[in-house]
Amino acid sequence: MNDIVIKLQRILKNKNTVTIIGVVLAIGILYWGYNAQINNAVQPVRNIPVATTTIQPRTKITKDMISYVDVAPVVLSDNVIRYANAVIGKYSNYNTVIPQGSMFYTNTLVNEEELPDSAFTQVAKGEVVYNFPVNMDTTYGNSIFPGNKIDIYMKAKNDAGQIMVGKLVENVKVLAVKDASGKHVFENSEEDRTPATIIFGVSPEINILLRKASYMKDLEVELFPVPHGGTAADEGDTQVSTEYLKDFINANTVVINQSDDTTKQNTNDNTNNNNNNNNQGANS
User: Fold this and answer.
1) For residue 262, what pLDDT is reported?
2) Which of 157, 228, 268, 271 is the most exposed place for a label (fewest CB within 10 A)?
């Protein structure tokens, strides 16, 4: 026993031997650590939820929309949802399509109460939302998309019985196109939806003007969209200016006095004067 101890002491006193042992130990530690990291990187994480079908925007996630896969940790980013109970009952966001086979991410799912309407999130400060009724024909075969710029034209019959047409509002940005049930026409790639409403933002003054015009059925008033920069079909006897149309609307409706929050009806004299002046301007 003493001989063994003496031999070990001699070996440990040999610098070359100690160096070799140190190098071997260091290599062993590095090898073990490297293998541990590789195993951790490739050892799959089990039961990660993925979509069994393509999930359209504003869709409630149900149990049958989920399957499970094993995924290598290296492809799992921090925003991947790893547990099904954090997915089921949530909604796909308004601007998100989740492809079949995709994992679920925290920024693509929201609670129902957090689900915004994309149209209302884009209304500019100081503007109000206007819902403009349309159909397949007035949208040029469903060719008006969110983000497009349009002009609003007006067609009506004046006191002389002439049909007049002119541009009432110019360069309006379309925020959304919805069908009769309020669903966004273009957000679902798997359904054919028929346009019923174009949504855009306008100033309070233009909002009131459009609403007044929409009630003037007795004067055969029609409002219709035209792509900005285009021209309306020559459907009238007389082409009139924007100011003419504004005066025509106000001359035939109640005027709101915003200074004292009272309303007054235009007198017949004022109405006739406005109409006479406008007719002269249209015919000149």
Assistant:
1) 39
2) 268
**Strand, helix or coil at 187?**
coil
Task: Please calculate the CA angle 121-173-241 and round it to the nearest 5 degrees.
Answer: 140
Half-sphere exposure at residue 46, Cβ-oriented, CA atoms within 13 angstroms: 0
Q: 3-class SS at 173?
A: strand
Q: What percent of the chain has pLDDT over 70?
A: 75
Residue 101 has pLDDT above 80, yes or no: yes
Please tell me the distance from the alpha carbon of residue 244 to that of residue 242, in angstroms, as a whole number: 5
Mean pLDDT computed over 224-248? 80
Do 164 and 158 contact (CB within 8 A), yes or no?
A: yes
Give the C-alpha separation, 139 to 145, whole Å: 9
Cα distance between residue 255 and residue 249, in whole Å? 10
- Say how far apart CA 125 and CA 128 lie, in whole Å: 8
Please, are residues 104 and 76 in contact by the beta-carbon 8 Å criterion? no
Q: How are the residues of the chain apportioned to helix, strand and coil, as percentages rounded to the nearest 5?
A: 35, 25, 40
- In single-letter form, the type of residue at position 43 comes to Q
pTM for this entry? 0.58
Q: For the residues of 231-277, what is the DSSP string, one character each?
A: -----SSEE--HHHHHHHHHHTSPEEETTTTEEEPPPHHHHHHHHHH
Q: What percent of the chain has pLDDT over 90?
A: 47
What is the tens place of the pLDDT at every residue in 61-100?
A: 999 999 999 988 877 888 999 999 999 999 998 878 999 9
Mean residue pLDDT of the chain comes to 81
Which positions ≥6 away from 152 have C-beta within 8 Å?
A: 132, 167, 168, 169, 170, 172, 210, 223, 224, 225, 226
